[in-house]
Write a structure and sequence with these properties.
The structure holds 2 protein chains of 2 kinds. By secondary structure, chain A is an alpha/beta fold. Chain A is built from 19 helices and 20 strands. The chains are: A alpha/beta, B mainly alpha.
Chain lengths: 536, 341
């Protein structure tokens, strides 16, 4: 008998059918992988099991009994606990206090005995966690552990994990999978939502694939491989391969020397970064979330202040740049000494605002991670968003709207942006189209340096590949591309070189064509060991 | 020395309405609701507390006993303040209206309602004003505690106040213990810090917000009643009687960085600033213990400004050295809707 199952379960948001008559079964002692592209309804389906959303149609059964789950409390009563992708933790409270939240019990909180119980669960499943540590002092992986322990403490027999590995290093992911296997041996039913195919194949027993809110297929993991699963998710076979065109005659474009950035909390977010960026290459930046990627991008774009270091821009066309550029990672230290060769024309960038950088005639484009917060104005239409980049055109106080409207129209045609028109507010567009608007606008400014942060985050396979193609096209035009990514598979395929950040330090720069995921993973997890290719 | 004791007495008495307002708003804000209606709720509490005693007396034609007057005034002013907060809660929690706008509307409503009722019942009475009898008013004057009040220094310093001062300080201590040691207090903090997390932990977010906001509003209401019974003429309605106490209390919440214990200290400091010019008049020779000095000629307005200036300094200080423990609740000012996407 299934631990939990749904029959004809349906949920609609406004007019969008997020989950459409889904039949779903989960058994005790199994790990089920729930897959699907973004917007296929995975999270919505799980949120109905955990009481966050209430279904519009169909019903849920727990151990064969028809049940109503109206709120998270009902879900807990049935032993269903969910670890959300965005952690639901109170930062100012300790791990134990977070675990105790909302539980019945005496009028007063007994922190001591609760901490002891929490420690017992931690020991049983082999977690590493201090029950009395405050959440805001914790790493991402510790926070995730708190979420899992919280669910177990409430006696959950069914665990739902929503993209648990998105924020973990490969090594941390492996450790998580070990604890999941321990729980499975303990008879728990586990659902893991992910779109990393290799994880599905490694850890799950069965795979349930959703597509556009409907079940696209259910297979035993033993009978599945990457192609089968991808086809089920997308509905057709797609080329998963990303091109890596080779560009000849690279030039040194940007040199970063000893760059240090402190955040508001006085944390050294970027610690003495040295690297070069060349024309016609994509330099991938790998690292777990919060390793200094944001600070690096923003310091280069002139958006945040650096405490020390130098960023030097080498204008194109000077043959001496070409000779100075040494593509081998091992030799990057030789170039990165902060002092350019004699006679080479250079422009220091650090300490200049985006406006000053633009006035110097340096075309530097930045596609930030937060598309609708920082990249575009969600409540404005395409024309106005394009205008933001060209607001200085036009006469006197008047902006040149026709120019922007034409550019916006051209972008829609060229990038095949699915939108009713240039006057639709960008918030209404899907994630992939929003990214096309943003990237298209930046590319239209003919950048020499293009910085992109997580350009494919939240996009489906098709949109993601469109974005990768656009980046490759720019690279072939001689643009120097800095690509901050999270999916190592993608970084390994698209980048020419990969620079790894860990705790704000550059722990290594590797050749993407020859390196392995394991090598990058090790660099992502390491703090102090000096790496070949680094001169700190 | 006597002057200093008198000054401290006056500071505590003047600071207590701030304490009620600040406590009420701390409780409210701990649930994530930024209720700018404190001034309005104080007005509602003031008129509610005053009318309850005054109308009972005129209705029965007798003077109410002091103890009954206190009970009645505290109870009704609490209910009046809570009623104002309930309107706010319905709008903000259920209908998810913008919090600042709703709070300001509540202030405008409360001030108007208080002044209207005060003036209306004043005109209808024979004397032309709403007032309570001297007998009832005695309930709000300083207590004479046997033995304790007569201990030298200790007595005048600690056992020389009206009953509402002790009520306020006791409530502040209970509130501090409530936040720290009780399950409900822990849950409430979670609701204010991160309602989504609280919700996922099966805490009924809306119920907590309603309860904290209404009880908080009730406490603000007691503060308003205190102003009319103690701070001003002692049980007589004066047009615009609350006159900014509510706004200062909102500032004090920041000054106290959401801690009821620091609220006690903060309100006493603000009270001291309020009475300072009366006890240390300009150009007079002041002797405190062995020290004597001539008070410089500082205008009254300067003292009136000091609480706000101090709040600004506290804001600057806490933003220079950020500390998660003294930050405002994470979800403050943001309405929560579970199915937000």
């Amino acid at each position: 008998m299934p631990a939990i199952s749904t029959r004809q379960l349906t949920k609609t948001f406004d007019t969008v059918l997020a989950v459409d008559k889904v039949d779903f079964d989960l058994y005790h002692g199994e790990i089920l992988a729930l897959m699907g592209e973004n917007g296929s309804g995975k999270t919505t389906l799980m949120n109905m099991l955990s009481g966050i959303y209430f279904p519009d149609g169909g019903y849920i059964e727990a151990d064969g009994q028809r049940v109503t789950i109206a709120n998270p409390k009902d879900a807990f009563a049935l032993g269903v606990g969910m670890v959300h992708q965005h952690f639901k933790l109170v930062e100012t409270l300790s791990a134990t206090e977070n675990i105790l939240l909302g539980l019945p019990g005496g009028f007063f909180v007994d922190r001591k005995s609760a901490a002891a119980e929490v420690a017992e669960i931690i020991a049983r499943y082999g977690f590493t966690l201090d029950p009395n540590k405050k959440i805001y002092n914790m790493s991402v992986s510790e926070k995730q552990t708190v979420e899992i322990v919280k669910v177990l403490y409430r006696g959950a027999t069914t665990l739902i994990l929503d993209e648990p590995t998105a924020v973990l290093t490969p090594q941390e992911s492996d450790r998580l999978f070990d604890t999941l296997r321990n729980m499975k041996a303990d008879g728990k039913a586990i659902i893991i939502i992910t779109h990393k195919l290799h994880e599905v194949l490694a850890v799950s027993d069965r795979v349930h694939v959703l597509r556009k809110g409907q079940t696209a297929g259910i297979v035993q993991t033993a009978d599945a491989d990457r192609n089968v699963l991808t086809e089920m998710m997308v509905g057709q076979s797609v080329a998963l391969h990303i091109d890596r065109p080779i560009v000849e005659n690279k030039e040194l474009r940007l040199e970063v020397y000893d760059l240090c950035v402190r955040t508001g909390d006085d944390v050294l977010a970027l610690d003495s970064a040295n690297f070069i960026l060349q024309s016609g290459e994509i330099l991938g930046v790998a690292g777990v979330a919060g390793s200094g990627q944001k600070e690096l991008c923003e310091a280069l774009a002139g958006l945040c202040k650096a405490q020390q270091g130098a960023v030097t821009f080498y204008p194109e066309g000077d043959w001496r740049n070409r000779s100075a550029a040494v593509p081998e990672a091992e030799d990057s230290g030789r170039v990165a000494n902060g002092v350019p060769a004699e006679g080479v024309k250079t422009i220091p960038l650090l300490g200049k605002s985006p406006q000053e950088i633009a006035e110097l005639g340096i075309s530097l484009a930045f596609v930030p991670e937060d598309r609708l917060g920082m990249g575009l104005v969600a409540g404005m239409d395409m024309t106005d968003n394009v205008l933001l980049r060209h607001y200085k055109r036009g006469r006197g106080p008047f902006a040149d709207r026709p120019y922007s409207r034409n550019l916006a129209t051209r972008l829609i045609e060229r990038l095949k942006i699915a939108t009713p028109g240039v006057s639709t507010v960008v918030r209404r567009l899907s994630g992939g189209n929003v990214q096309k608007v943003l990237l298209g606008r930046e590319i239209a400014s003919v950048p020499r340096v293009l910085i992109v942060a997580y350009p494919a985050r939240g996009l489906d396979v098709h949109s993601a590949h469109t974005i990768y193609d656009l980046l490759n096209e720019q690279k072939q035009k001689g643009v120097a591309v800095l690509f901050v990514g999270e999916d190592l598979d993608v970084l390994l395929e698209i980048s020419d070189r990969i620079m790894v950040l860990c705790g704000g330090k550059v722990t290594g720069t590797v050749d993407a064509a020859t390196t392995t995921k394991e090598e990058v993973g090790l660099l992502m997890a390491q703090m102090d060991a000096p790496q070949a290719g680094e001169t700190n | 020395m006597d002057l200093l004791v008198l000054f401290i007495n006056a500071a505590v008495i003047a600071g207590t309405p701030y304490l009620f307002g600040t406590m009420g708003e701390i409780l409210t804000e701990k649930s994530g609701n930024l209720n700018l209606g404190v001034e309005g709720m104080m007005f509602m509490g003031a008129i509610g507390g005053l009318l309850s005693v005054s109308l009972l007396e005129s209705g029965l034609g007798v003077d109410v006993a002091p103890g009954l007057a206190v009970l009645l005034a505290v109870g009704v002013s609490f209910l009046a303040g809570a009623a104002g907060a309930f309107i706010y809660s319905v709008l903000v929690v259920t209908f998810r209206t913008q919090q600042n706008v709703t709070g300001l509307a509540l202030t405008i409503f409360g001030v108007g309602l208080g002044n209207f009722l005060g003036d209306f019942f004043g005109r209808r009475s024979d004397t032309g004003i709403v007032r309570i009898s001297a007998r009832a008013g005695a309930g709000f004057s300083r207590l004479d505690i046997p033995v304790l009040s007569d201990i030298p220094y200790i007595g005048p310093l600690f056992f020389n106040y009206n009953i509402l001062v002790y009520l306020g300080i006791a409530m502040a201590i209970v509130l501090a213990l409530f936040f720290k040691y009780t399950r409900i207090g822990l849950n409430l903090r979670a609701v204010g810090e991160n309602p989504a997390a609280a919700d996922a932990a099966s805490i009924p977010v809306a119920k907590y917000k309603y309860a904290a906001t209404c009880i908080g509003g009730g406490i603000c209401g007691i503060g308003g009643m205190y102003i009319i019974m103690v701070t001003t003429a002692g049980g007589v309605w004066i047009h615009n009687v609350v006159a900014g106490f509510g706004w200062t209390s909102v500032a004090l919440v920041i000054f106290a960085s959401w801690s009821p214990r620091r609220a006690i200290l903060g309100s006493m400091i603000f009270g001291a600033l309020r009475v300072m010019p009366f006890y240390f008049p300009a150009n007079q020779l002041i002797t405190v213990g062995f020290i004597s000095f001539t008070m410089p000629n500082i205008p009254m307005q300067f003292y009136a400004m000091l609480p706000y200036a101090m709040t600004i300094f506290v804001l600057i200080f806490t933003s220079i050295r950020p500390n998660r423990e003294t930050n405002p609740p994470g979800g403050l000012g943001v309405n929560y809707f579970r199915e937000d996407r």
